[in-house]
Design brief:
The protein has 13 helices and 17 strands. By secondary structure, the chain is an alpha+beta fold. It folds into 2 domains: about 260 residues, Beta-lactamase (3-Layer(aba) Sandwich), CATH 3.40.710.10; about 120 residues, Up-down Bundle (Methane Monooxygenase Hydroxylase, Chain G, domain 1), CATH 1.20.58. The strands form 6 sheets. Strands 3-2-1-17-16-15-14 form a 7-stranded antiparallel sheet, sandwiched between helices. A two-stranded antiparallel sheet has the order 4-11. A hairpin with a 3-residue loop joins β15 and β16. α4 runs antiparallel to α13 and α5 packs parallel to α9.
């Protein structure tokens, strides 16, 4: 009936009009962030140039190959600069639209996806995740006796969706010395290697292993956000990449954010580097790097089966695309005149959810939160929220100052480099209003 209806002469003329209105509607939501002179948004042009000077020193000192830095205030781009090399060996300069492996900066996006479904009434945050992923029913906890072999006992409670969002699930990462070897043997994906399987496959392997501690007992940064990625797939009935694209990336105009960039954009993927004190700065090797039971590579976005949509680590993005995501959060969930999230949801996500569980870590639902457990360590604002990625990327969103700071490079290990923190402080010292 539908195809017949659209094929009539009268209604064929309506279709282009409707499609045009749809395109205009999406475009109005996804406009580029406007640029402004720094002084018009309360920042000093002269002081912002200090960011360029410090980044350039690190490039000249061969501590990084290149970087993109971006500062947004009051919804306008006041600073946006690419420096150094996107590929030093090919003498290819860093570009503003360079694409970066953002790794754990995927986690806030997955958390937003979860909260979109939460707002639709699909679940409550304190629901056990086993209600939707039955393989997590009746979890067990690892016990390591003083002598003898480790064993497991039933956990005192189930893992909740809130536990996964705030990293109190008892799940960990491959680098953990107790459970990491089990994860590797069982075929659990870290998101930082080509993987011949889906997130559903990896999460099922993970569910069969013991937890590090009883859910809710403490904070442990973990693969729990990959479990959330699978939760989004099961509850929505869509693959995670499709859910991200239709519900987040297209409304926000994030046209350069992917799990696996298309071939015609791979030349924009910044080269990853390593820094070892005894070897200096070098292109990331063709073979993976092993650190105990933790193994990672830099080629996972471009090689392999490309079936793993890792909710905790898998995305590639640009500084400007990620700024659009940050601006949505800063605007209390608004995209143009439409709400992607409600203001109350953003408030919930960006306040500390750990309470007494952690005496020093402030963490919301997908974001680290500063200044809630003690004095600010550097320049900033109480309540600013942030996170970073394995290959040396990071962002800060500051509701008080209405400011976003983004740093993008591609380096791991980083040695003792603190350039990402310096860029943050230099953005804040530029405030003059």
């Amino acid at each position: 009936m539908r195809s017949t209806y659209l094929s009539t002469g009268k209604n064929r003329s309506i279709v282009p009009i409707l499609l045009g209105l749809l395109v205009l509607s999406v475009a109005s939501l996804a406009q580029d962030l406007p640029s402004a002179k720094p002084e018009s948004v309360g920042l000093s042009s002269e002081r912002l140039e200090r960011i360029a000077a410090v980044v350039q020193r690190k490039v000249d000192d061969k501590r990084i190959a290149g970087a993109v830095t971006l500062v947004v205030r009051h919804g306008k781009v006041a600073w946006f600069k690419s420096q150094g090399m996107m590929d030093g060996e090919a003498a290819k300069a860093m570009q503003p639209d360079a694409m970066f492996r953002i790794c754990s900066m995927t986690k806030p996006i997955t958390s937003v996806a979860v909260m979109l479904l939460y707002e639709e009434g699909r679940f409550l945050l304190d629901d056990p995740v086993s209600k939707y992923l039955p393989e997590f029913k009746n979890p067990k906890v690892l016990v390591k006796p003083a002598s003898g072999e480790p064993y497991s006992i039933p956990a005192t409670k189930e893992i909740t969706i809130r536990d996964l969002l705030r990293h109190t699930s008892g799940i960990t990462y491959q680098w953990n010395s107790d459970l990491g070897p089990m994860y590797e043997t069982a075929g659990v994906a870290s998101g930082l290697l080509p993987y011949d399987g889906t997130i559903g496959d990896s999460v099922k392997h993970l569910a069969g292993l013991p937890l590090l501690f009883n859910p809710g007992d403490r904070f442990e940064y973990s693969l729990g956000v990959d479990v959330l990625g699978r939760l989004v797939e099961v509850v929505s009935g869509k693959p995670l990449d499709e859910f991200f694209r239709t519900r987040i990336f297209e409304p926000l105009g994030m046209k350069d954010t992917y799990f696996f960039p298309p071939d015609n954009k791979l030349d924009r993927l910044a080269t990853a580097y390593t820094y070892f004190p005894d070897k200096g700065l070098n292109r990331f090797p063709d073979t993976p790097i092993r650190e105990g039971s933790f193994v990672y590579s830099a080629d996972y976005p471009s090689r392999g089966p490309k079936k793993l949509f890792s909710g905790g680590a898998g995305l590639v993005s640009t500084a400007m695309d990620y700024a659009r995501f940050c601006q949505m959060m800063l605007d209390n969930g608004k995209v143009g005149s439409t709400h992607l999230l409600s203001r109350k949801t953003v408030e919930l996500m960006t306040q500390d959810q750990l309470g007494k569980i952690s005496s020093d870590e402030g963490f919301g639902l997908g974001f680290g939160v500063e200044g809630v457990k003690g004095p600010l360590p550097e320049l900033g604002s109480v309540g600013e929220y942030n996170w970073g990625g394995f290959f040396y990327t990071g962002f800060t969103i500051d509701p008080k100052e209405q400011m976003i700071v983004i740093f993008m490079a591609q380096l791991h290990p980083t040695g003792d480099l603190t350039l990402d923190h310096q860029v943050h402080e230099l953005a804040y010292q530029a405030i003059i209003d």
